[in-house]
Design a protein that fits this description.
- The protein is of the alpha+beta class and about 400 residues long.
- It folds into 2 domains: about 230 residues, Rhopdopsin 7-helix transmembrane proteins; about 160 residues, Reverse transcriptase/Diguanylate cyclase domain (Alpha-Beta Plaits), CATH 3.30.70.270.
- The strands form 2 sheets. Strands 2-3-1-6-7-8 form a 6-stranded mixed beta sheet, with helices on both faces. Strands 4-5 form a two-stranded antiparallel sheet.
- A hairpin with a 2-residue loop joins strand 4 and strand 5.
- The radius of gyration is 34 Å and the shape is elongated.
- It starts with 9 loop residues before the first helix and ends with a strand.
- It comes from Gilvimarinus gilvus.
- Keywords: Membrane, Nucleotidyltransferase, Transferase, Transmembrane, Transmembrane helix.
- This is diguanylate cyclase.
Length: about 400
């Protein structure tokens, strides 16, 4: 390496030192903030990948503390052996942490098993090098550490490109980060090991800037990965609470809404009702026109319910040809109006299937399930609504009934 020297006056030297310390403060401060954020992600979201990134950042800090002498100057001034002889241990530790984070972040175990094995082999070499250095070997470990640092600048960008091309969108940030870092690191290694350039310590400065940008890009990628995980989690929850055919909620969604309703009753004292709906003679529709026709009728019911009900109402397919709506209203008459509108519109809107117009009707059972004085269980709620629905069926179908504690009340 060629070294450049500058003679400064004391004021100029002080100003230069201030600039350097400011730069180091920005570098180590930014990495420290990212470590804290990663640990918060790791603990709050229980994601190992975020913990791997925090460890990688720690190894990056240790790497640069030794390279720019800040560690020896301020942190371990008496540890001369560690500062002089521990360089290669730190290099190899950095390599192992970078490979571990990248393996996890890029999902190589499932997306690129062969590359995953390559990464694992390189990690074993790094570990073997650390052990060898602790046993006193110097030159072989020196060559191994530089070789692995160079290999790192190729294998991680290659792996990032491969999984990005295969559809892992956030791997683009890993590719960009490691390409940038590779340029800075390779220039430093070439400058240190050859006489091709007379740049002095300048490549090392550029490599440190590249290292900071690399960690920032990786943080962006990690954030996008965490956002994607959260979106997938929300989608899974939504699918778990959704009926696949109609797009309405399912029985699980109804039970969850019932539990939430109990909590909301403390603030909003309006009574709550459940409106149970059952299609009349639905089996005959399936037997006569086929299950495709039956599915079409069910989807049209779902569309009708969503059109008539409010956004605050919980509309679900309870099972088979049964639907349930959980809603708040000032009184039962308001709910009856909703039920009657559903019943009338469904009866007056036959479903067209191929060349057939399928006539159909439904029954509604209405029950007040919760008020400020009464909060039954979800089983009691459905039992009351079922009783009202049964009375509507028994009375000749295409009717609505309201549950009464002694005798369900027929809506004329």
């Amino acid at each position: 390496m060629t070294l450049g020297f500058t003679l400064d006056t004391p004021p100029a030297f002080g100003a230069r030192q201030q600039r350097e310390h400011l730069g180091f403060g920005v570098f180590y401060g930014a990495l420290s903030i990212m470590i804290i954020m990663s640990l918060i992600f790791a603990i709050a979201l229980k994601q190992r990948n975020a913990a791997y990134y925090a460890v990688f950042l720690l190894s990056t800090i240790l790497f640069w503390l030794k390279l720019n002498g800040i560690g020896f100057q301020y942190l371990w001034p008496d540890a001369v052996w560690w500062h002089n002889e521990g360089f290669h241990i730190v290099y190899l530790l950095f390599v192992g942490c970078a490979l571990q984070f990248s393996k996890s972040f890029l999902q190589l175990d499932s997306l690129a098993p062969r590359l995953n094995r390559v990464f694992a082999t390189l990690q074993l070499l790094a570990l073997a090098g650390i052990v060898a250095r602790l046993l006193g070997l110097y030159e072989p470990v020196l060559m191994l550490s530089f070789a692995l640092l160079v290999v790192l600048t190729f294998v991680i960008p290659f792996a990032s490109y491969k999984v990005w091309r295969d559809g892992l969108d956030y791997a683009f940030w890993s590719l960009l980060a490691w390409l940038l870092y590779a340029v800075g690191l390779l220039l430093s290694i070439i400058s240190a090991s050859t006489s091709l350039f007379s740049w002095g310590m300048t490549p090392l400065f550029y490599a440190q800037v590249a290292s900071l940008l690399e960690t920032l890009f990786l943080m962006i990628g990690l954030s996008k990965w965490l956002i994607q995980l959260e979106l997938e989690r929300q989608k899974a929850i939504s699918q778990a609470n959704e009926d696949a055919l109609t797009g309405l909620g399912n029985r699980r969604r109804l039970q969850l809404a019932f539990t939430q309703l109990k909590d909301a009753m403390v603030i909003d004292h309006r009574p709550a009702f459940v409106l149970m709906i059952d299609l009349d003679y639905f089996k005959q529709i399936n037997d006569t026109f086929g299950h495709d026709a039956g599915d079409k009728v069910l989807t049209e019911v779902g569309s009708l319910l969503l059109r008539i009900c409010r956004e605050s109402d919980v509309v679900t397919r309870y099972g088979g040809e049964e639907f349930a709506i959980l809603l708040r209203a000032q009184d039962v008459d308001t709910v009856v109006q909703v039920a009657e509108r559903i019943r009338v519109e469904f009866a007056s809107s036959p479903t067209k299937h191929h060349d057939h117009m399928i006539e159909h009707t439904l029954c509604c059972g209405i029950a007040e399930i919760m008020n400020i004085d009464q909060q039954p269980s979800v089983q009691e709620m459905m039992k009351h609504a079922d009783e009202a629905l049964y009375q509507a069926k028994a009375a000749g179908r295409n009717q609505s009934h309201v549950y009464a504690h002694k005798q369900p009340h027929h809506i004329v």
